[in-house]
Amino acid sequence: MRLMRKLYDWVLHWAETPYGGPALFLLALVESSVFPVPPDVLLIALCISLPTRAWRFALLASAGSVLGGMLGYGIGWGLWPLVNGFFFQYIPGFTPDVFAKVQGLFAEYGFWAVFTAGFTPIPYKVITIGSGVFQINLAIFLIASLISRSLRFFLVAWLIHRYGPGMRGFIDRYFNLLSIIFLVLLIGGFLLLKYIF
Known about the structure:
Elements: H1 2-13, H2 20-31, H3 40-49, H4 54-90, H5 96-109, H6 111-119, H7 124-133, H8 138-163, H9 166-196
């Protein structure tokens, strides 16, 4: 936990430098395949310190995350037999048990498995690498990643922009719950449209 706190503080310090935007892009990129601290931490801090650039920061986080997702997909597709021991031993969220469950989710849900992991606190890196290992259709993977990651980061930026710095503590405290509620409402809306029309 001490190491995670140091990583968290290190990520946050970038908001106080002129390199916050590029750091956010790179953080989102590496978090999608290996890094344990989500980019939301830096995104929130940047949106609070420069609210007029909130949409730009959300775009940087989305682009970095989707590109990082492609990197994760590539690791799973081409390098998994060589690197799986490293991931299982050193990367939080990776276990053989979790990976077996991910394979089952892909087989049953495809697009929705990627979308859900991209939007909620489920470790996105497990899904990006798993998508490559289990050879999920690349177009489906990219579309689901683009929609879910953009929704997630633009929602955070909008909340900060709309409600101000007071939202930071609220989002930090309840982000997992908020993202799950939003996902339930979104899927419920799709189901409602499906059965009405």
